[in-house]
Amino acid sequence: MKLSGASNVEDFVGGLRWVSGMDGKLVRLRERRDEFLQGLIEEHRDRRNTAAAAAAAAYNCNDEEKKSITNRTLIDVLLGLQETDPEYHSDQMIRGTIAVLLAAGTDTSAATMEWAMSLLLNHPNVLHKARAEIEFRVPPSRLLTESDIPNLPYLNSIIAETLRMYPVGPLLVPHESSQDCTLGGYHVPRGTMLLVNMWAIHNDPRVWDQPREFRPERFQGQETGVVRDGFKLMPFGSGRRSCPGEGLAMRVVGLVLGTLIQCFEWERVGEELVDMSEGAGLTMPKARPLEAKCRPRSELLPLLSQL
Ligand code: HEM
């Protein structure tokens, strides 16, 4: 993430390429990454073969049953596809798919949860309101599940407001014009790199009332699980190259954040507010990682002690 997020002078001044050693660093990193991912593939391949053989021997099971035993993870699914189309779903293609999902899907979701939690610690009234909603919808005898998320509009509003104020893809991903075009009166020649300053749009006072105020209420009444509002709210980008992980991200962030609120009492470590400065990096991390105090909620203790 560090290497891919950095601006490199040698991308613009070709002659500097061999001085910085950046190419070499990236190649070495790729080799280590490929070795690690290939290890995962082999591990799954062995396990699938053993599980399928054991299942067939023990129960004489049919193809459908075999599939349900061996299709437990994404790598299993990709290896299953490899059996039907080995040329397209090569190990290299599987390594690429895992790498892109890890790179695009983990830091982004984790950073969004960290920003949301930081905002909640600085706004305890919002945290209490979110807890009240969860208590009303989810009995203390069970943990919140994915199917509860659509029934928690306030929690969804908190996530939308977090993504508005702290979009972890503040400039989206660089796009390139495939044809000459005119944008806002500017001539954009074919092949130009185009960056969209989503952070500026999300925080523009001409578009949003008091944009630097954390007010999840502004999204109340909106369909849950949707974080898109024309072109003024687009934390996942827009169009053909928008984030394909949006649905997964909204479920994961909702489930984790909701469960943390459901199960624990949260407090700031001191009197002072959590520092909300933005750090440098590809997925807009907090400048100072969040530290907070938490303890299990007494009502949830019987349930938590059984986990
Ligand atoms: C809160 C979490 C996330 C946010 C805010 C987010 C945001 C974004 C943004 C802004 C883009 C660029 C869109 C554009 O340039 O128009 C993008 C691309 C992408 N995202 Fe996400 N993302 C998140 C989670 C995920 C997850 C969980 C996955 C998959 C497991 C994922 C996979 C991808 C991929 C593969 C792309 C590149 C798509 C392409 O170039 O066609 N993202 N994401």
Overview of this protein structure:
The structure is a single chain. By secondary structure, the chain is mostly helical. The protein has two domains: 9-89, no CATH class; 106-304, Cytochrome P450 (Cytochrome p450). Helix content is 49%, strand content 7%. The chain has helices at 2-5, 17-20, 22-59, 63-70, 74-84, 91-122, 124-137, 153-165, 198-202, 246-263, 301-304, and strands spanning 175-176, 181-183, 186-188, 193-194, 264-268, 292-296. A two-stranded antiparallel sheet has the order 1-4. It has a two-stranded antiparallel sheet with strand order 2-3. Strands 5-6 form a two-stranded antiparallel ribbon. Residues 100-101, 104-105, 108-109, 112, 168-169, 172-173, 235-238, 241-245, 248-249, 253 line the site of protoporphyrin IX containing FE (HEM). Protoporphyrin IX containing FE binds next to helix 6 and helix 10.
Give the count of helical stretches. 11
The radius of gyration is 23 Å
The structure class reads: mainly alpha
CATH superfamily of the largest domain: Cytochrome P450
Bound molecules: protoporphyrin IX containing FE
Q: What's the architecture of the largest domain, going by CATH?
A: Orthogonal Bundle
CATH class label of the largest domain: Mainly Alpha
Name the helicity range. Answer: 40-55%
Principal-axes shape call: globular
Sheet of most strands: 2 strands, antiparallel
Give unreliable regions as ranges. none
Strand content: 5-15%
Estimate the mean pLDDT confidence. 90
How many structural domains can be distinguished in the coordinates?
2
- Widest beta sheet: strand line-up: 1-4
Order of helices and strands: HHHHHHHHEEEEHHEEH
CATH topology of the largest domain: Cytochrome p450
- Measured distance between first and last alpha carbons: 34 Å
Number of strands: 6
